[in-house]
Amino acid sequence: MYWLSKKRYIVLMLIPTLLIYIVYMIAPIIVAVGYSFTKYSGIGNAKFIGLNNYIRLLGDSTFMLSLKNTMVIFVVIFIFLMVGAFSVALLLNNKLKFNGTAKALIFSPAIIAPIIVGIIWVFILDPEVGLINSIMNEIGLEKHTQLWIGGDKLTPYCVAFIYLWQQLGYVATIFIAGLKMIPEEVMEAAKVDGANAWQKVRYVTIPMIRSTISTAAILIITGTFKIFEVVQQLTNGGPNHVSETLVTYSYATTFSNGEYGYGMSMATITFIISLMITAIYSFFAREKVE
Amino acid sequence: MKKRILAIISATTMVVSMLTGCSESQKEDYASENKKVAITLGMHVANVEEQEPVTADIIKAFEAANPDIVVEVKGNDKDEHVKKMKMAAQADELPDIFWMDASVAPELNEAGLLLDLNGFLKEYSEIGDALADNMKEASQAEDGAQYGLPYQSLVTGIWYNKALFEKCGLELPVNGTTFEELENMVKVFNENGITPIAQGAKDTYSIWAFLIAIERYGYFDKIDTILAGNEKFNNTEFLKFFEKLQILGRDGAFPSNAATMTYFQAKEAFLAEKTAMFDSGMWDAGELDKTMGVNTGFWWGPTFSDSDSPQTVKMKVSSAPLCVSKAVGEDKIKQEAVYKFLAFYYGEEAAKISYEGSIIPSTNYQVEVDLSEKPAFAAIVEALNAETWISPKAQPDLVLKEAVQAQLYDSIYGTMLGNYTPEEALDKIDIVLDQQ
Amino acid sequence: MIVNKISRNRRKISLYILLSFVTFLVMLPFLWMLLLSIKTNSEIFRMPLSIPDRLSFDNFRRALNTLDFLQLYKNTFLIVIMTMAIELTITFLSSFVLARMVFENPKIKSMIYGFLIIGLTISPFILLFPVYKINTIIGLKEQAGLIFPYVASSISFNTLLFVGYMKSLPSEIDEAAVIDGCSLRQLILQVIVPMSKPVIATVVIFNVLYIWNEFPFASIILQDSTNYTLSLGASFFKGKYNIDYAGIIASSVMMIIPQLLFYGLFQKNIVDGMTAGAIKG
């Protein structure tokens, strides 16, 4: 390979990607971060105000609440999606009939527009006209009906659950891909050694697909911090901002309140948090492999 | 090597020019086709035919009367539209005429992007006469520039279901019905298992009747001093008003799921006769006529005995303005076409089309329209005829910047839903105001 | 022996039950949506659970009348084809470099890789405003203005999958090719591309669906409604003072079904593509 790796080939083949990436991804990020140091309504000229937006964030209780909600969503999704998708992958990795059909069906929510996902779930979770509470009323569980969305507690969990629903098949597919790579002989050997099902998973499967797990984890982490449409459709951050997430709050600030600079300071923080969690995760994941 | 890069670049530019080609060729058409002028109109709904049928009809009538002018309508739903216009402003790509949020239009004007329509009003003086002063003042800058004209009249209040009132043995609300009487209605309706007032908090702006009520506590007497920083939102009069909201919420005046309801769901609840009253405005008259008909009544909302301010407040004000892009002024032919369109839009024929479509235009021509088939719309027209009742110069939220406006909505709903105390709610507005 | 077989059967049955249960749970929201799509607006809000008295396709008729599906699909596919052609070419080449070519300084290679992956963490909403400005500066609008943002936002994901997959291909292939006298172009086109079919299929599926569903950029950049893509369709049912939920649901159903078919056709490739692609991530 070395002979073909001439510098000009390398440069020529990298440049188109780098160029588009820099112009349409990196430059916009820099511009957005730049605006976070200004007071700007989106019209006319921006006024440089230094770190004021960031100082204001510290005293903004809605921002802190949306940070908390986002972290709740993240933790719930991370734990349940990793475990759930892994279990589904193990289940689908059995040689059962209809496996292919089941796999396709379980995957299907991942291909639908997030806006449509949001609309579907509004009609499931809505306290008045939604499926869940309607069924509970019908079968005599009136007392246990909940404000699934629109109350002050449950919305983040519902958002996490919906994401779980949407991504379950997707992440499971990644795990299945990893499981397929484990050589049959290894599993046979474990069986001969008398390992039970749990021991096989714990001491053979998980260590063998470590890098798959970390890919899945990174996609989940980065995906979680981009959830927007579902929250917008469910509650639009309300009532009174109690279900706001970092993305919805920065969106509302930027586009509905016309405070572009302030909104971008939130977006910048969101970006940094997501980057940091990814970096921390990658760091620990790597440690363990070695 | 260089040749290859050049080849790549020229290939890319070819693709790009292929794609942009169409827009350039359009421009040529515009020059070559004899005098057929195209003007663009940016609207706040995606589907003008369906959602703003009156505007669609006016445009059709205008094009029929002016065969040399074509109106190209571009629309998006409201939030997308405002976002898009802000971006288009950055790129000098604003449509010739466009609907704009009343709180954003002044900023566009300050940035020098809007045409001063005083020239238009001078040329077509009869239009200026047909628009009431508060309609024109709503879109005037301090230096007197007329940066927009009201799209329609904004007439808001409370719709009520006469049959449900009668069923519960309640008197129908009239001009002057007090807050105490409203409290009684709330009590009686709740006893009868009927939700008193349909409100959908998910659309935070849907608090029109309460924006009338806040003027009954002297909103426009105070707002200039407040905005100048010499007074707070948290003052004794506004506090009294917010305490009323708290009382209504506590007494169960609103649906139990108001927090997750959208304005549209609130409307559905009212149309389904699940609620007795509905906070809304003129735009729903058409739909109400179709479903509830003669059962529909209209009311300006309760009056308050503990306020020092006049209680005879109705609400017929400027809705969001139609603005004209500054660039239009640089193209004489286009400007003439735009002026013609505006003259038609604010003319008598358009007013008639408007009334026929159950929309009250911003102009005040006396037109003959048969309202016998439209009891709901007739109710609102009749309410407007109360001569001693006065409209403020604008809807209270429309004189605030977007962020303050959003906080005002949030505070009103927060108090109604019991999430904020009245003091908290008002303090929140003051905090946001400080940051502007 | 017999006992063993019975217990194995029992295990199998319980696995079937579990599998059916999970599948049913995942499909439930779709079934609910299908039910809603044949109800009227007022039925949806007044009697959520009821089964409508008669099968009515009014919502679908209204959706078809309101939306020009043919035009929407045409617009969407035009953008899909242009975007896919550009992004597959450029990201495949750049990933080939990162996966298989030799750098004098390997650190630069991993830096470029990391740099290209960062994009995964970006929410598109941050980029709306700046991207619009950049489009204005370059002079791109309407469809042409959408293609490059779409290409840019696919780069991170494609790099992750392509590089992972290509790294997993044995390095002997290259050496054998070089010994046979292959040029770089021949190596890529005749050896690596055919071997990468599964991962290419996976990338195509995900990116086509992404563009199909993408809303934020499309809503900002497309000005002319004749250029609208499918995802903007829902906005046609939303006025300032009224929303046709039943219409939105029916049109969503009509958008989802072709997507499911498209996915069904290609889904076999997804696992294969992910297999190697995801491992080395």
TrEMBL record, chain A:
Q: Record's Pfam families?
A: BPD_transp_1
What PROSITE patterns does the entry give?
ABC_TM1
InterPro entries attached here?
A: ABC_transporter_permease, MetI-like, MetI-like_sf
Mode of membrane association: Multi-pass membrane protein
What cellular-component terms does GO give this entry?
A: plasma membrane
Alphabetical UniProt keywords: Cell membrane, Membrane, Sugar transport, Transmembrane, Transmembrane helix, Transport
Any GO BP annotation: transmembrane transport
Stated name of the protein: Multiple sugar transport system permease protein/raffinose/stachyose/melibiose transport system permease protein
UniProtKB/TrEMBL annotation, chain B:
Q: Does the keyword rRNA-binding apply?
A: no
> Does the UniProt entry include the keyword Membrane?
yes
PROSITE patterns, per this entry?
A: PROKAR_LIPOPROTEIN
Write down what this protein is called. Raffinose/stachyose/melibiose transport system substrate-binding protein
Provide the alphabetized UniProt keywords.
Cell membrane, Lipoprotein, Membrane, Palmitate, Signal
Species per Swiss-Prot/TrEMBL record = Anaerobium acetethylicum
Lineage, top ranks: Bacteria, Bacillati, Bacillota, Clostridia, Lachnospirales
From TrEMBL, chain C:
Family, according to the entry, reads as follows: Belongs to the binding-protein-dependent transport system permease family.
Keyword Cell membrane on this protein? yes
Keyword annotations: Cell membrane, Membrane, Transmembrane, Transmembrane helix, Transport
Instruction: Name the Gene3D superfamilies on file.
Output: MetI-like
Membrane topology is: Multi-pass membrane protein
Q: Which GO terms describe its cellular component?
A: plasma membrane
Domain annotation ABC transmembrane type-1: ranges: 73-266
Q: Does the keyword Nuclease apply?
A: no
Coiled-coil positions: none
Which BP terms from GO are recorded? transmembrane transport
Instruction: Tell me the compartments it is located in.
Output: Cell membrane
Q: Which InterPro entries match?
A: BP-dep_ABC_trans_perm, MetI-like, MetI-like_sf
Name-wise, this protein is: Raffinose/stachyose/melibiose transport system permease protein
Q: What is its main location?
A: membrane
The record lists the organism as Anaerobium acetethylicum
**Membrane-traversing stretches:** 15-38, 77-99, 111-132, 144-166, 187-212, 245-266
